[in-house]
Amino acid sequence: MVRIGSFIRAVSLCAVTIGFGSQAVTAEEAWPSKPIQIVVPWAAGGATDSVMRILAGEVSDALGVPVSVVNQTGARGTVGTNAVINAPP
Hints:
Blueprint: H1 4-27, E1 36-40, H2 47-63, E2 67-71, H3 78-85
Parallel strand pairs: 1-2
């Protein structure tokens, strides 16, 4: 059986967390401000590429920002991974 004190602590923690979250959302600027680029580290035409292109269309419609898919193949995905790591923020 759950003790009342534990329940009150849990509810209080949730209330505080929600309070901090709502302040952070109101302080943010419009995002994203630039086009989004999704890097797929495998060849075009595969299952991953197809899913990412469908997802890019949906995200573009939802955010109102252009979303492009770029395929960077080679070294079992390492080339694409390095492209993401070295990309500007």
